[in-house]
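F.,

This is the one I mentioned.
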């Protein structure tokens, strides 16, 4: 019975690990801020935390070393030339399909807990502001709609307003929290990792031959 308890303990351990939530908080308000949270552990990705400077040790006087002899550079193999046009097209097609599949599965398992984008559009004068406002709306609204529709979300809002004050600057504020689980990332790696590994092995065989 001991082996059964050990097996159940291992299964329970991995089940807990896979269920651990991963959360990314991104904010921009005059300065960019990004924080990663894995379970209860929080890691600030940006801005980087300043490291404490260690006192410099005095270097001993070293004798000048003779420069190492330069190695003869061998000409690189023209790998793309060996593939040919059809091979290059096939390679890029497979890479594109793989990337599209990875992104599709990745975004399908991302939950947007909060998404808020605020833009105040300015310009040299009222006419310039109106033109800029039209350009921003024509790009931002379709883009955010496409991104949001590819993921699950609980709350999001996009607010774009013109500022007709003469010489007003365009200001952007952004806040978002994205959430997923380790299990989803492992699933994506297992699903698409073998395809990527197979592609790399095929390319290596072509290069060796």
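My design for it:
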């Amino acid at each position: 019975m001991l082996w059964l308890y050990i097996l159940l303990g291992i299964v329970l351990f991995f089940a807990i690990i896979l269920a651990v939530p991963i959360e990314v908080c991104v904010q921009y308000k005059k300065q960019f801020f990004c924080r990663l949270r894995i379970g209860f552990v929080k890691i600030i990705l940006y801005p980087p935390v300043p490291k404490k400077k260690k006192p410099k040790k005095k270097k001993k006087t070293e004798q000048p070393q003779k420069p190492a002899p330069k190695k003869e550079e061998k000409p690189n193999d023209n790998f793309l030339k060996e593939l040919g046009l059809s091979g290059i097209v096939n390679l890029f097609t497979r890479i594109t399909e793989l990337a599209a599949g990875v992104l599709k599965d990745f975004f399908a398992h991302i939950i947007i807990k909060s998404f808020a984008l605020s833009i105040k559009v300015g310009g040299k004068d009222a006419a310039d502001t109106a033109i800029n406002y039209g350009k921003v709306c024509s790009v931002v609204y379709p883009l955010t709609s496409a991104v949001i529709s590819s993921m699950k979300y609980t709350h999001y809002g996009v607010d774009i307003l013109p500022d007709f004050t003469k010489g007003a600057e365009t200001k952007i504020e952004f806040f978002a929290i994205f959430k997923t689980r380790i299990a989803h990332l492992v699933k994506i790696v297992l699903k698409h990792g073998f395809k990527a590994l197979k592609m790399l092995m095929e390319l290596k065989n072509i290069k060796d031959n």
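Strands lie at 21-28, 32-38, 41-46, 111-121, 152-153, 156-162, 171-181.

Talk soon.
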